[in-house]
Amino acid sequence: xxxxxxxxxxxxxxxxxxxxxxxxxxxxxxxxxxxxxxxxxxxxxxxxxxxxxxxxxxxxxxxxxxxxxxxxxxxxxxxxxxxxxxxxxxxxxxxxxxxxxxxxxxxxxxxxxxxxxxxxxxxxxxxxxxxxxxxxxxxxxxxxxxxxxxxxxxxxxxxxxxxxxxxxxxxxxxxxxxxxxxxxxxxxxxxxxxxxxxxxxxxxxxxxxxxxxxxxxxxxxxxxxxxxxxxxxxxxxxxxxxxxxxxxxxxxxxxxxxxxxxxxxxxxxxxxxxxxxxxxxxxxxxxxxxxxxxxxxxxxxxxxxxxxxxxxxxxxxxxxxxxxxxxxxxxxxxxxxxxxxxxxxxxxxxxxxxxxxxxxxxxxxxxxxxxxxxxxxxxxxxxxxxxxxxxxxxxxxxxxxxxxxxxxxxxxxxxxxxxxxxxxxxxxxxxxxxxxxxxxxxxxxxxxxxxxxxxxxxxxxxxxxxxxxxxxxxxxxxxxxxxxxxxxxxxxxxxxxxxxxxxxxxxxxxxxxxxxxxxxxxxxxxxxxxxxxxxxxxxxxxxxxxx
Length: 547
Fold this sequence. Notes:
54% helix; 13 helices; Rossmann fold; five-stranded antiparallel sheet; Beta-Lactamase; alpha/beta; flat
């Protein structure tokens, strides 16, 4: 038995004696042997050991050999493992069934050792050969696939090469057509200065349309045209300068023509060299700039005329500027006089507001002195109310003469001062009534600020007198904001006992509410009264301030 035909064999038999006999016999032959005593264990052993051959008994508990063989032949990983039935069942029908299930051989018990070993060797050799064939077949399939892919790639390359050749040919045709359509000189020369290609415009220009120019130098082509003889000689000389420069050169070249003045061309010459420094070729491109040169000459003439006109105009402007400077100096002097006058008027206005505020305070003081001789409570209350109204107006004038802007007043600061004054005058216990002020960036003209201040004075005084009887606690709120449309909303609200039922602001007997109604009309505004969880007066009007 050669080493290459040894293998892994699984012996499946419910008789430990048969397992031992077969295991010893096969081990001595050089095989690796696994064993199982029933069909279920045999299936598990096949998955783990992957044997090259299975010697399978038929009559076994749990699962017989036929069933085990059926499972093995149904599995993708196990169907190629040769199965040899070794059983005492000698009936022909059992043998036929075993072979139909896929058995490789069928040996009846009792068996001869030499026969078993011979059949095992043959089946292992066949199994090894089959595995080699499978590997070789797979390798052959892979090689065929690679060859097919290579052929396909080669075919694609051939097609691509043909396409590239066609595209190159089309590109050459397109380039030739484009170059011939250009109204410019286009020529290609080799490293010795011999003409290789030239476009139609170049050939027509130098009268070479019927000449076999390829392979000839400029000096040789000069012999074909007496008129352009000197032009060809000049081209050869300028070519040499481009070679010596070893970089693209650009220059204006004049080329004569049979009728009319010479033509001027903007000529670019690009030399090319081999890697070892030898001359390889020269590209010559020339554009007709005769018209451009004519226009440039015209422009130069116009520019000189324009410069002359500018000089004349500059002199005129200098004279005008001198007059303007005199006028500016005179205007500056007038502006300084106006500024001085405005400053004087501003000082006078501040003094007026200061004196108005002082006079209002004097009136308030006189009223205060008068109250000492008044013993009637109603009259005394009227005097006190008048004092508060005068104080509200005095605060406006105080804000104005202390402010930079005499036309408007910071309403937020004014409301805080006015409300503080009223609370200091009427509220004995600061913990009884609290004040909340929410006034945004509101700036009003004096004709708007005074009525608003008097409205707040009347409504706050009314709240402090009537909204919180018998020591009732609560809160008074002053809210004022300006909307995007310039509409001012002023609200005075309290959390007191609310307004009397059916109260009409315009017919109310209270002087304070009558004053409020009159001031709202003065502002050309509207007033809305609400009585829910207290009293609320909402006044809206359009402000004239455009700061």
